[in-house]
């Protein structure tokens, strides 16, 4: 695989992952990545780090073992208004900002309510991507999300981990729907491992076969180019100002 980046991963700081930041960075280098994104769960997730962890990320070097580190958070979408669980002044300091719905923190509603929750998070110019929007326990209007991805310059994630988690309902079918809509509207996506241990880093064993089955174009997958992904983030930072 010639991916240059994996930007949704977790370390022991998230409370339910098992590698250190250094171990993850070393493994990313071994696997030939150019960019590793580490996105710890924000404070409402049980067992994770508190806000001071994110404030103090400035002390961590952004290059280790020859790879670039992007350090940020997987923020929890809490309600239909798209509220996330870090204040803007902390989010502003982060290299990466993923917003995700997690069933232990968000009360699943109707398709319209759930879609509004994600749409409202996407309207926040500080959010770079939506994590694992693929669970039918939380029904979503995928056409609206794909159109919003293009409008608000917020990536939709194809999450490898979702495809092996039985708790996430119809993930395969929903990912196929997302990919087909993104092809139709020419919207880029990001493939991430959501690794919680070093050996899972850059793993696309479950997601890539679906990408190939659908015939999704390589040019719409940002993982193939570190330069292209960094340009995408730079445009978001301009929009944030």
What do these coordinates show?
The chain is of the alpha/beta class. The chain has 8 helices and 8 strands, in the order E-H-E-H-E-E-H-E-H-E-H-E-H-E-H-H. The protein has helices at residues 21-30, 51-55, 88-91, 111-122, 142-152, 171-185, 207-214, 226-240, and strands spanning 5-6, 35-41, 63-64, 67-76, 96-100, 129-131, 155-159, 189-192. Strands 1, 2, 3, 4, 5, 6, 7 and 8 form an 8-stranded mixed sheet that branches. Helix 1 (21-30) links the parallel strand 1 (5-6) and strand 2. Helix 4 (111-122) packs parallel to helix 5 and helix 5 (142-152) packs across helix 6 (171-185). The longest helix has 15 residues, at 171-185. The protein is globular. It starts with a strand and ends with a helix.
């Amino acid at each position: 695989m010639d991916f240059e980046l994996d930007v949704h991963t977790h370390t022991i700081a998230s409370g339910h992952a098992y590698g250190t930041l250094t171990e993850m960075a070393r493994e990313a280098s071994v696997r030939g990545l150019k960019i590793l994104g580490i996105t710890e769960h924000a404070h409402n997730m049980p067992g994770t780090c508190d806000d001071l962890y994110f404030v103090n990320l400035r002390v961590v070097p952004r290059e280790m073992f020859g790879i670039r580190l992007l350090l940020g958070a997987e923020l929890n979408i809490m309600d239909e208004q798209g509220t996330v669980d870090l204040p803007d002044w902390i989010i502003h300091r982060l290299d990466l900002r993923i917003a995700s719905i997690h069933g232990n923190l968000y009360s699943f509603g109707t398709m319209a309510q759930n879609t509004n929750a994600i749409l409202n998070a996407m309207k926040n110019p500080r959010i770079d991507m939506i994590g694992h929007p693929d669970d039918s326990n939380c029904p979503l209007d995928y056409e609206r999300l794909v159109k919003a991805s293009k409008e608000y310059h917020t990536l939709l994630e194809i999450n490898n981990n979702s495809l092996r988690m039985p708790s996430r309902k119809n993930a395969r079918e929903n990912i196929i729907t997302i990919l087909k809509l993104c092809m139709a509207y020419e919207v880029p996506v990001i493939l991430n491992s959501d690794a919680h241990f070093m050996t899972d880093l850059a793993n696309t064993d479950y997601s890539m076969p679906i990408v190939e089955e659908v015939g999704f174009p390589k040019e719409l997958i940002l993982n193939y180019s570190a330069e292209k992904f960094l340009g995408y983030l730079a445009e978001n930072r301009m929009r944030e100002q």
